[in-house]
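Input.
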Amino acid sequence: MELDANRLIRSLAGVIVSASLVAGCTSSAGVGTPAPNNGGTGGASGGSTDESSFYLRAWQSQALAPQYTFGWLPTVTIANETYIDGMVAVPAISPGPIYTALQVRPISAAGIDAVVAEARADGLLDGKTDFSQGSMPGSITVHVSLTVGHVAYELTGSAGSAGTDSGTGAVSPGTPAAFQAFLAKISGLDTWLGADLGTSSPYVPDRLAVMATPPTDAPGGIVPQQVTWPLAATFATFGSPMGTGGVRCATVSGSDVATLLPAVQAANQLTQFVDSTGAKATLSVRVLVPGEMRLCS
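Output.
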């Protein structure tokens, strides 16, 4: 089974166009770490999974400055019995958008059971956590945060095709090829579990990560659109510094999300937001999905 490279490439292309995929932050919990108890019987030892205790998030990271990986969305998230698809097509236009809207679909208990069964068959719940054998230094790392039956698993591997073991055509559990096989399955949930997914609807985020960058001259004499910055904090006090060059980053939550979202949905990469002091910034904005750690303050 081969990893759906086109979907991953499409996701990464969207990042390049919008100038930002962070890999999120990797949790320090290892295999066998108890997850918060939400009640239910769990499914770590087989049988029907308690979907209320199930969680899955897959994302990518690379050893680059945070400004360049800021917009790397988790490729797939399953939380609270819903599936959030992070591999979305971004229009190949210039200037590109600064915000990527996500879609969410309900996932049935049978669908969650199928994901758990695949993880178990691939040997991902047996104690091994690192499936990155043979990856090149500086290459993209794939992370999978998985909770089954209130037990958390933090897995890593390389991005690439699944392949087989020793050219035999088989994939042995607990191998890098098995990890890739699992990634291929969850990267194509629409195809794999379509009957277990409900109707798609826009995902309404409750947190946004926002990176504010001093504006540069627009190319070709383009006059950039200027928009009033809708939040109270000025750019000088917004969040905290990220890297160098006057870049700042903040997590926006609560009522500020509803205030900011319409403005960023209508903006592009050249749009200059002007705060109450007259300071200007261009923005990169992305959703923080459930369970994802902050990218900045």
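The chain has two domains: 5-201, 205-287.
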